[in-house]
Amino acid sequence: MRARDLAAPYPTVGLSTSALDAARQLADANLPGLIVVDAAGRPSTILPGTQVLRLAVPKYCQENVALARVIDEAHADEFLRDLADRTVAECLPKPERELAIVGPDATVLEIAALMARTRSPLVAVVDGHTTLGAVTLDALLDRMLAS
């Protein structure tokens, strides 16, 4: 089975998309991440949902769980709303790592290796300048476990 056989339609966002809008897309569709496209609509990287959280949660709470524990729920919800003033570009990890993008002929093992290497829960499947869709970790594991 090849990437083209596993690829399913998948939502995209641009670099200038609001991080809050990206978070809403992730939550509304229960997605592990989003495909980020450039101005020409070509995939440029993958935005894992964890990177959106990383931007929303203050560093002091990430580094010290005891500090996170003392903030009440009402104030914790405010952190997520602060994403409205930020963009997808700000959520991307730095430095840019290997892109989680494969061609339509990539094998299941190639996709799995790329996911593991890039720590990405999804891989975009691209044929030239056309995005065919994406393979999620869930779809990949279903395929691998069915064998």
TrEMBL record:
Domain CBS, residue spans: 97-144
> Do you know which Pfam families this protein is assigned to?
CBS
Q: What is this protein called?
A: CBS domain-containing protein
Origin organism is Luedemannella helvata
User: Taxonomic lineage per UniProt?
Assistant: Bacteria, Bacillati, Actinomycetota, Actinomycetes, Micromonosporales
